[in-house]
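Co-fold these.
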Amino acid sequence: MSRLNIAKGRVEMVHGSGGRAMAELIEQLFAQAFDNEWLAQGNDQAQFTLPPGRVVMATDSHVVSPLFFPGGDIGSLSVHGTINDVAMSGAKPCYLSAGFILEEGFALADLKRIVDSMAAASKEAGVPIVTGDTKVVERGKGDGVFISTTGIGVVPEGLQLSGDQAKPGDAILLSGSIGDHGVTILSLRENLGFEADICSDSQALHSLVAAMVECVPEIRCMRDPTRGGLANTLNEMAQQSGVGMQLMESRIPVREPVRAACEFLGLDPLYVANEGKLIAICPQERAEELLAVMRAHPQGQDAAIIGTVVEDSYHFVQMETVFGGSRMVDWLNGEQLPRIC
Amino acid sequence: MSRLNIAKGRVEMVHGSGGRAMAELIEQLFAQAFDNEWLAQGNDQAQFTLPPGRVVMATDSHVVSPLFFPGGDIGSLSVHGTINDVAMSGAKPCYLSAGFILEEGFALADLKRIVDSMAAASKEAGVPIVTGDTKVVERGKGDGVFISTTGIGVVPEGLQLSGDQAKPGDAILLSGSIGDHGVTILSLRENLGFEADICSDSQALHSLVAAMVECVPEIRCMRDPTRGGLANTLNEMAQQSGVGMQLMESRIPVREPVRAACEFLGLDPLYVANEGKLIAICPQERAEELLAVMRAHPQGQDAAIIGTVVEDSYHFVQMETVFGGSRMVDWLNGEQLPRIC
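Predicted complex below.
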C-alpha cells in the first residue's frame, strides 16, 4: 500500500473503483478514524449481538451545504441526525453504518476533517460506525460529499412510543430553543455575518431521551423537529394521531440572536430546522415531572411545556400569540431552506 | 394533499423541504410502492422484532450510470446489492432502509419507474424496505438519483463465515459466469450495441446462500465480486486470511458475448463487476457436495470449483492459464469502470 497524501491530495475516480486505491482510502482514512472491532472484521458487513427487545432502524441521507458550519459539519450532523431518529422511539441507539458519495476533486484534507468529526461524534455518543461504503462520482455530478447514515437500536421493555399515540389533554413539551441550526446554515450561506452570535444545535439526544423514558415511560411520542421545523413536525404528529394542538407562543424558547436573524431574513422560527431538539407528548399529569427531568439534563435546561393536545377533527395546530391573538400554524408550504441537513 | 403529476412532473427543491410537498412525494410514490406495515407506522424509524442470533448490518450507496440498463436499474440494484452484502455472512436478510438523494429536475416518471423496480425486487426477495429518507439537491449538484440502502439480517446458529477464515487446501467455488454486469453497463454507456446479447446479472443471492449454508455450514467465507471483479475480491480474501490462491482459468465461466465485448473493450473479465455472483471458500472435502447444491439452485447452475487456497506468505493470487502458463492476478490498479454500481 502507498501512503495517501491527505494534506494535498484530492478524491479521484479511482478511489471508488473497488481496487487498491479504494482499499488505501478506507484503510488510511475511514478505518483509522472510526477504529473499532467491527470495522476491523474487514468484511462487507458487520456482525454483532443486540440486547433482547424490539429493534429500531432509521436512515438519513445528508446533503447539508455548506459542509462546515459553526457548531458542526456534515460529519457530526450525519451521526447526530440518525442517532436522534433512532432515539425518538425511546430506543437506545447501538450501531451506525455510513455510506459516502464523494465528488471527484474533493480535497482529502476536508474529507479527513469530516471523517474525524464523525468519529468524534460517534465516540462521544458511544455509538460506533461499524460498516460503510464509498462511491465516487465525476466532478459536477455531486457536491463535495454526501453521507447516508443508518442506525439501529433497541427499545427498552415497556415503551410504546409512536406518532399516532397523542391524546386530547396531553401536554406538549419542547427540549429547548428553536431555529438555531437552520438560521446558522442560512446566515453562513448568504454571508450575512450572524454566525458570530449563533451556532447549530446539532447534538445527539439519546442520553436525554434515556433519562426521560426512565422517569416517564408513559411518554406517548417524541420527534425531533428537523426539516420543516417545530410547525411541520407538530402538524405531522397531529395528523398521525388524529388530534389538534394548541400552542402558547410565549412558552416557545427562541434565542435572541436567532429571533433577530429570523426577522432580518423574513423567516418564521417555527419552520426553521433544528438538529438537537425534541418534542415530547405525554399525559398531562406527568408533564411537570417530565419537565423537571428534562431541565435537570444539560440538553434540556431550557425545556418548556409549550401546549396541549386537543380534540379537533381538522387536526389543526393553533397558537395563542404573545399578543393574545390566535393563529393557525399550518404545514410548511413551499420551500424555506434547501439542503439544511 | 394534492395529487403529484407523475407522468409529467419533475423533482423540485420543495420535495426535500420537509413540508407538505415532501409528504406528498413520500405518500404517493414511496409508501404506495413499498407498502408494508412498518412504513405504515409513519414514524422517522421502523420497529420490528428479529429472530435470536448474531445480527448483521451492511450498507451500500448506489451511483450507477446509466440509471436503467438491460437486466435492471439503480432501484433493483440497490436492493440486490445490499441483500447480497448481508447474505455473504450466511445471514438471512430481514429488513432494508433506503435513502434517496434526488437531483432537482429529475423526471417523476423515471423516479416512479425506479421506485417500482425497487419495490418489485424487495417483494421478490421477501425483504421489505421499512424506513427511508429523501433529500433533494440543486440541478448540477447530483446526477438524477443516488440510492443508499442498508440491510440487516440474522446469522443462523452454527455459522462463522468471515473473509479471514480461508485455509491452505480449501476449495474456491464461483456461482456462475463473470463480467455480465460491468460489460452491460459499459457497453450501454459507450453506445457499443452489445446490449442485445448481454444483460446485467443483478439478482439477490440469499436463497442460494441459504441452501449452501444449510448443506455445508463449514463454508469458511463468501463474498460477492462486485467492483474490482473476481480478481480484486480474491485478493482481498487472500490478504485477509493470510494465504495465497491458485486459480484455473479454464474453470472460470465467462459467457461468449461477454468475452467478445471484453476483447473489444480491452477489458479483463476477471476485473469486471458482477452483481449476482458469489465466491465461496470451503474445506476441500466438502467442495463437491457444495458444488452439487449450488448447481441444483437456479442461481448456481454454472457454478464451478475454480481453484485452491495455498500457503503463500506474499498472499498472491495466481492462475494457470488456458494455455498452460501461469500468471499473477493482481489487485485492480487504477480505475477500470467508474460508477458501475
